[in-house]
Amino acid sequence: MNPTTPIHRAPDSPAARQALALAGVFQAASLVDELARTGQVDTRAWETLIEATVDTNPESFEAIYGGHPNNLRRGLDTLEALVGRKQANPVVLRYGFSLLMLMNKLRTNNDMMDSLGQKLTRIQGQAEHFGTTHENVVASLGEAYQETISTFKTRIVVQGDPSLLQSRMMPERVRACLMAGIRFGLLWHQQGGRRWKLVFQRKALRRALDNLS
């Protein structure tokens, strides 16, 4: 991403921070859908997700998503659909809620959390050598997802063009996106995000989105 992108201080509001983290989850879901259908992906949205996943020790909340809410614009737009303001893509919503479900399973599995943390530490070293979005790093993220999250009985079945999904590096890119969704899901939970709030505190989410637009 552009290193000159200004750091916009993240809002102090818990609802706004939850909205930004949740936007990361649904941005990952949106990119998985885009990759599976077209083989292409929005570069800014993609780099934001991968960099957030590789940086295991960010210096601030806003540093996680590159310092500007617009880096999560794809996810924020999906949240607008979630609160009923835009047309929702049911496939993207399904991926997003599945990611939150998997995040909850991971969160309560200490052994898997430790294993994943060790893998991400190694991948961070790899990223420092090759560059964050290098295909070796993406492949390692995909492998880490496959060896951890993919072992749960609940899995995300990705719909799309079968020939694209089997093309070179596509499984790894899809899994790296899913890993990013898990990363932002954990962030959402850390900020106080809960599934029931998406139902009973929809107005708070709408106000948060208004402040981020």
From TrEMBL:
Membrane-related topology note: Peripheral membrane protein
Keyword DNA repair: no
Membrane is among the record's keywords: yes
One Pfam family matching this protein: DUF489
Keywords: Cell membrane, Cytoplasm, Membrane
Any one of the GO CC terms: cytoplasm
Record's subcellular location: Cytoplasm; Cell membrane
Family: Belongs to the HflD family.
NCBIfam families cross-referenced by the UniProt entry: PRK00218.1-2 (NF001246)
Protein name: High frequency lysogenization protein HflD homolog
Natural source organism: Vreelandella sedimenti
Lineage of the species this protein comes from: Bacteria, Pseudomonadati, Pseudomonadota, Gammaproteobacteria, Oceanospirillales
